[in-house]
Write a structure and sequence with these properties.
The chain has helices at residues 10-13, 39-50, 82-88, 91-99, 103-114, 132-147, 159-166, 185-198, 265-271, 309-323, 367-382, 387-394, 407-423, and strands at residues 26-35, 55-58, 74-75, 122-129, 154-157, 173-182, 202-204, 209-213, 218-222, 225-234, 251-260, 277-279, 286-290, 296-300, 332-342, 349-354, 357-361. By secondary structure, it is of the alpha/beta class. β13 and β14 form a beta hairpin. The N and C termini lie far apart (45 Å). The relative contact order is 0.20. The radius of gyration is 21 Å and the shape is globular. Bound molecules: flavin-adenine dinucleotide.
């Protein structure tokens, strides 16, 4: 099995520290064994370690190697799939989703403060509108936030105000939300891993799990060792390849990001004077923001399934130039991609494969926020408080036959469908 270093991203190049957790060797035992050291796994482990559990995390590559260390760093509120839940499930599930829309943000804020995690956390975010129907959604969201007593500044922006805060003519309006924000996701993930380790959690890197043996004591097996545990949490999301039962319920959808060279003060003032995260409402969306050192981090889906930085650069450069002609020839220093776990109904998936083997995955593009909440819900479930876990688990995932082996053509078709819908 090939163990991989971090992808060559802006985040990997600006990491506060490189982690060196030793691989798993020999047989260990734990209260809980978590598979995967992304936000889901590390968040779960930190919640459990804070509650005094002996928790071991087994990661195939490095902490934050997957989507958690590669993403847009946009701290977006809300849980994907809310519309599905409102249509197909009872009011209790709908209300729970409503209450939890910003719960992950609070967990991140508390952790950054408690453990002094340096991850460039900043508040301020705009949901931009391209079409009238997006503006209708924005007004609806605004009213909902007002009614719920949302404690942060939220404002509907006119076309001109949106042009000023985004520097782009592409939008007809926006919702400014100062409760959302942006951050350096790899530094957050590593900071949380170090916090968990400081509380006694054991983390193994470079240890791909090759088997999960179910039983009263489940056994998580790697080439060089094993962890026996009372409970196991599978947190491999779109990178998980092991458990057959998880294969047909999640599509691994690629998304790609470029980081430009640091921009001049004049350009920063013209394109994003308030340092906001910007995200459009399309399914095949564009999301962008500035890094702490004032690079433009521009992300979105591409009609591409590889990982060649030159291809990513060429395609994203065109999109950047559409918004910002002054950046048509800007130097691109980093270009990378990663896999997002997308369920057909978009609802995050929590459940069990056997009585003590749990899984948690599939946040679509909202994982920064929702993984943090999910970790708390998993820790609660392991401690026997099942209310929120059971409500999530009650939303049964769609199983798509052959989704695993045919995922690339199926995703291509799915994306085409949504690209057409986005244009309507
Ligand atoms: C390019 C991109 C941009 C995104 N932008 C945003 C954004 O701006 N805002 C937002 O909210 N969300 C965004 N997302 C989504 C978000 O990053 C994810 O939802 C979130 O990080 C998922 O975290 P995770 O821990 O569940 O999975 P991952 O971070 O993918 O972690 C899974 C880990 O499990 C490990 N693993 C898998 N199988 C095994 C095994 N058998 N043995 C051991 N380890 C294993 C992997 O190596 C990996 O490290 C983006 C995603 C991508 C790819």
């Amino acid at each position: 099995m090939i163990i991989q270093p971090h992808t060559a991203s802006y985040y990997a190049a600006t990491v506060n520290e490189v982690t060196h957790f030793a691989p798993l060797r020999g047989d260990a035992s734990a209260d809980v064994c978590v598979i995967g050291a992304g936000f889901t796994g590390i968040s779960t482990a930190l919640h459990l370690a804070e509650r005094g559990y002996n928790v071991h995390v087994v990661e195939a590559n490095r902490v934050g190697w997957g989507a958690s260390g590669r993403n847009g760093g946009q701290m977006i509120g809300g849980i994907a799939g809310e519309k599905h839940v409102a249509k197909h499930h009872g009011r209790d599930v709908e209300e729970l989703f409503g209450e939890l829309r910003w719960a992950g943000h609070e967990i991140i804020r508390e952790r950054v403060e408690t453990y002094a995690i340096d991850c460039d956390l900043k508040y301020g975010y705009v949901d931009v509108a391209i079409k009238k129907r997006h503006m209708d959604d924005i007004h609806h969201d605004f009213e909902r936030l007002q009614k719920s007593g949302f404690p942060h500044e939220v404002r509907v922006l006119s076309r001109e105000e949106t042009r000023v805060v985004t520097g782009s003519d592409a939008y007809i309006g926006a919702l400014l939300n100062m409760g959302n924000g942006h951050l350096h996701p790899l530094n957050l993930c590593i900071g949380e891993a170090n916090a968990a380790a400081s509380l006694g959690a054991t983390i193994y890197e470079q240890s791909p799990v090759i088997d999960i043996q179910h039983g009263d004591k489940a056994r998580v097996v790697t080439d060089n060792g094993s962890v026996s545990a009372d409970a196991v949490v599978i947190a491999g999301n779109a990178y998980h390849y092991l458990e057959r039962k998880l294969r047909g319920i999640l599509f691994p959808v690629n998304s790609f990001i470029v980081a430009t060279e640091p921009l001049s003060e004049d350009i920063v003032a013209a394109i994003n004077p308030h340092d906001l995260a910007i995200c459009d409402p399309n399914f095949v969306l564009e999301y962008y923001r500035l890094s702490a050192d004032k690079r433009l981090l521009f992300g979105g889906r591409l009609n591409y399934f590889g990982d060649d930085p030159r291809v990513i650069e060429v395609q994203h450069r065109r999109k950047i130039a559409r918004h910002y002609p002054q950046l048509a020839n800007v130097k691109i220093d980093y270009a990378w991609g990663g896999r997002i776990g997308v369920p057909v109904n978009r609802v995050p998936q929590m459940g069990r494969i056997s009585p003590n083997v749990f899984y948690c995955q599939g946040y679509s593009g909202h994982g920064v926020n929702v993984t943090h909440l999910a970790g708390q819900i998993m820790a609660d479930a392991i401690g026997g408080t099942l209310e929120r876990f059971d409500l999530f688990a009650s939303v049964k995932p769609f199983v798509v036959p052959f989704a695993y082996s045919l995922s690339t053509p199926m995703v291509a078709l799915g994306v085409l469908y949504y690209q057409i819908r986005d244009r309507l």
